Amino acid sequence: MANTFHQFVAFGIDIVGLERILRGIQSLLLIFMAWPLSLTHFSSTISIEKATLLTVPFRLLQSRVGLVRRVLRTFRFIDSFNGGVVLFQNQSPGQGIEVWLDVISKTTLGMWGLLETITMLDAFEVPGLEYFGAAKTAEYNRQAQIYWFVALVASALSSLVKIGKVAQSTDSTEEAKDTAAAKKKPGKGRKSINEKGKDKAADVTGSQRSAKIRQLSIKFVSDCLDMVIPASGVGWINLDRGLVASAMLVTTFITGKDVWDRCGKELDAKAS
């Protein structure tokens, strides 16, 4: 088992782990920004102007943190496009709609990253270095949020389809076990070694299916929560900024745990 400190160091120097840490910080800053504004609803002594002034440092800091995260994601769109191409090329006739949903998710996620990357210079807001200009950059960023939303929807639907298929295979296995038990001859209460081995293998397979369903369910919930970020960003839904930031914080922990576990496994592999 990897030491927590060493695992945190490995998590921090991993580019995906570092991006998750910064995402968590940014979501906390967004929550802090929303909190002073909400005080105006409960206290008449705090004006909107005063509450807005309290959020200025947080607003600037979260903007800088978001820009650093954007830099860390610069070339991730290439990996997303490549993942979509690999899924498309390796699909077989027997595979279902979830493969196409994954292809759509990877491709649109790549488009989101591509639009973020090509507007990087404009995001720095350095005079003389802007390429597209403020208006066109804002439009590209809006389109990027739409692509991200589509990617999340496709990913969530794919998880639902996969959960259904895993659950269906579980039901089929249980029915087969019940049928085998019903056909068993009376008087043979003790199982052979071969039968015990089969039962043990079935239990392991069942636990693996349960773990798979749990993993897919968590991913589905994470994708659904993340949807509120681009949907709110493009104006499709009107949610309190604190709620959007809270959803962002929750999904940061959910997605960050996968990276955390991976770093721990890599440390264990090096130690063995």
From TrEMBL:
Residues 177-206 are annotated as: Disordered. One of its GO terms (biological process) is peroxisome fission. One of its GO terms (cellular component) is peroxisomal membrane. Keywords: Membrane, Peroxisome, Peroxisome biogenesis. Residues 182-191 have a biased composition (Basic residues). InterPro entries: PEX11 (IPR008733). It is found in: Peroxisome membrane. Residues 192-202 have a biased composition (Basic and acidic residues). It comes from the Eukaryota. The keyword Lipoprotein does not apply. This is AoPex11B-like protein. It comes from Sarocladium strictum (Black bundle disease fungus).
